[in-house]
Design goal:
mainly alpha; Growth Hormone, Chain: A; globular
């Protein structure tokens, strides 16, 4: 048996720099869960206005994710990452100085544009800078950083709870913005994008840095020919016979990542714990920190498993566990008391754990590796757009669903959706573990 090859130091370095975008993604989307507890009091917000504050970022993310694919294909993956940093800076600055509800929404929208672009640009960049043997772990660094960003947001919210200073909660995002800004000057453009823009020499130079075994790289020629044929057809290429199925599978996986309910936990965790009986703000925020901690720990485990166990087994096991824990979570809300509150916390932690080892990292990984080079940016943009579109409707309707279906009924609805996702994975999603991006494309051409 041959020794398992490892990624190069350079491949790890550029992946870590790019994955800081995941921290910004996670932090900017989830810090609102703590901010909402205090800004609601300052601005006297209605239920709809609270939902609007959460969902405004998602509207920006919708637009950003759709535009991000075009930007990444035309300007390059690295320049796209630079563009998102500018948007993040403007958005966070606007939020920290906002003195009205309107300006607050503007800041959330600009931050959303950045989140939408970075959510597809980071896994795309890392996938194209990774050797196939470790692509799963390296791309999943992005999801690990997303969970770290979420945990940091929860910790910051908890730390600033006594002062109720929601402006400083937003301002902490300037730290990862500055770190990534410096790091981006030390990373290269991806070889796939370089070869698609007739920069073969530059592409070969980058490949020498990211692959363990140097030498000739014939796949560049194949990707160049494939890219020429698909680019001429533009968006029509997404419905080509060899692209149609992976295109639909990528969208399906991205959609199920959102509609299985994870975003209700990320955005409304303190509110859910208050509904479970933990009425004190500090207690609800502390329980939310536990959720973020489990999310990070299990995602680290997923990085170790994803290139060993494979994508499909993790998705199948994760969706089964998510459905079961959501059912128990719904049951916990049928009664009141300390025991039911503890059951709710336990069920939510189990749910987050199963998500973190399955749909959390695997969904972004799959959409970064199933598409051919010629349409990769655009296809990922549309899949990411679908993810954010569902994310938007889930976040916009969560509090309303609780009013109409009850808390138990709402979580049971998400459990049913998890079972539908399980059927989708078993029927349609193939295993891509250990395959090069070119081998994956050959598989689609044969089916």
């Amino acid at each position: 048996m041959s020794k398992r090859r490892k990624f190069t130091n350079y491949s790890l370095f550029v992946s870590c720099v790019a994955a800081i975008g995941g921290i910004l993604f996670g932090y900017n989307t989830s810090v609102i869960s703590g901010v909402l507890l205090f800004i609601t009091r300052d601005f006297q917000l209605t239920t709809f206005e609270q939902e609007l504050i959460v969902s405004t970022l998602l509207i920006g993310a919708l637009i950003g994710s759709l535009a991000g694919g075009l930007i990444a294909d035309s300007l390059g993956r690295k320049k796209t990452l630079f563009a998102t940093l500018i948007l993040f800076f403007i958005g966070v600055l606007t939020l920290t100085i906002a003195d009205s509800f309107t300006y607050f929404l503007v800041g959330r929208f600009i931050s959303g544009l950045a989140v939408g672009i970075v959510s597809m640009a980071v896994p795309l960049y890392i996938a194209e800078m990774s050797p196939p043997e470790n692509r799963g772990a390296l791309v999943s660094l992005n999801q690990l950083c997303v969970t770290i960003g979420i945990l940091l947001a929860y910790l910051v919210s908890y730390a600033f709870a006594a002062e109720a200073d929601w402006r400083d909660m937003f301002a902490c995002a300037f730290i990862p913005i500055g770190i990534q800004f410096v790091g981006l000057f030390f990373i290269a453009e991806t070889p796939s994008w370089l070869i698609s823009h007739h920069k073969r020499a530059d592409a070969e130079e980058v490949l020498e840095k990211i692959q363990v075994h140097h030498g000739h790289h014939p796949h560049l020629v194949n990707e160049r020919k494939e890219e020429d044929g698909l680019t001429k057809k533009r968006f029509k290429a997404l419905l080509a016979p060899s692209v149609r199925m992976p295109f639909l599978i990528g969208i399906g996986v991205a959609v199920f990542q959102s509609i299985t309910g994870i975003n209700t936990v990320i955005y409304y965790a303190p509110r859910i714990f208050q509904l479970a009986g933990f009425t004190e703000t500090s207690t609800a925020l502390f329980a939310t920190v536990l959720v973020g901690t489990i999310n990070v720990i299990v995602t680290v485990i997923a990085l170790w498993l994803i290139d060993r166990v494979g994508r499909r087994p993790l998705l199948i096991a994760g969706l089964i566990g998510m459905a079961g824990s959501l059912f128990i979570l719904g049951l916990s809300f049928l009664s009141q008391g300390h025991a039911s509150g503890l059951t709710a916390i336990f069920a939510m932690l189990i749910y987050v754990g199963f998500f973190a080892v399955s749909l959390g990292p695997v969904a972004w990984l799959i959409i970064s590796e199933v598409y051919p080079l010629g349409v990769r940016g655009r296809a990922m943009g549309i899949a990411t757009f679908s993810n954010w579109l569902c994310n938007y409707f889930v976040s916009l309707t969560f509090l309303t669903l609780i009013q109409d279906l009850g808390t138990s009924g709402t979580f049971w609805l998400y459990a049913i959706i998890c079972l539908l996702g399980l059927w989708f994975v078993i029927r349609l999603v193939p295993e891509t573990k250990g395959k090069t991006l070119e081998e994956i494309q050959s598989f689609w051409k044969k089916t």
